[in-house]
Fold:
Amino acid sequence: MQQLVGSRLGPYNSFNPITRVQIWQWCCAMGDHSPLYLDEHYQTQTEYAGQGAVAPPAMMQVWTMRDFNDDYAPGSTVDHPYQIMLDLTQMGFPANVAVSYDINFHRYLVEGDRVHHYKTVVDISEMKKTALGEGYFFTDRMEYLDQNGELFAEALITYFQYRPTGNPAGEASSAGANANADPQQPPEAREDRQPDYKDLAVGQLSEGDVLPELLIPITHKLIVGGAIATQDFIPVHHNMAAAQAAAMPDIFMNILTTSGLCARYVADWAGPGSRLRKLKLRLMAPNTPGDNMLMQGKITALTQTQNGSTVNVEFSGINRSGPHVMGAATLALAGD
Structure:
């Protein structure tokens, strides 16, 4: 397996250019109503005037995903991008979950852009034992480029490939739910905090400020709809038997949906004029149907330069088993 480290594979092409329909489908699944993406009147006030729909930055990975039949777009390399997964499966480690996502966004895509990507395995661990089972962690570096060959985003994605234990994940950890939060409280019992889509200025903010909470019900519809909107047809996200074979209690949310929900959470707070520059996620307890995820966050740093102001936030999404996701984001602010 170490022979796979350092080999840059690609390109992996997109089947289609960036389209308004797929942006709309993503925004519907993520509950993201920011006017930046699809509101033509609002866009006339931005740098995207006259360029059509704007793709949410967390859609980065969607455009070059495999299709329903697990095929890559014409013109893609014939090299299998996940040879390491195939090798580990043959070695007796058939299950896989994504565990972290570290992304830098250099620019947003617009309608008509065309995407391709390259990937490089940068690290493979020794065998590790976890609650899911024993296996190997490995990290991919992903480079996402537009039709001009310009890098618009890059990411480090870490996966765990493992031999499942006999106990579904989450059963043993449910007793360790956060005692200071009650994500099971129904949404109607909480204050309904809808974003006002007003841009925040750095002068309004202080380090340590707390972001408004957001409660997201985790349903079969959200998990399956999010998987479809992110072009992720892996069975564990829609097939209970496949998920249970991977030591999960039920189908579970994919990392791309989690990424989209986290990006929506911080961008709704900062306003549609903000621009997401960095997003870092670490996944823990799975999001499964019948649960709720409580999003919380706080400001960790504010920076003012000649080029504008940025804010760093830390955030978490907690379900009944504890944290589903913990992460950090950097956003450029619009209002000064």
Remarks:
- Helices lie at 20-30, 35-38, 40-43, 83-90, 220-229, 240-245, 255-270.
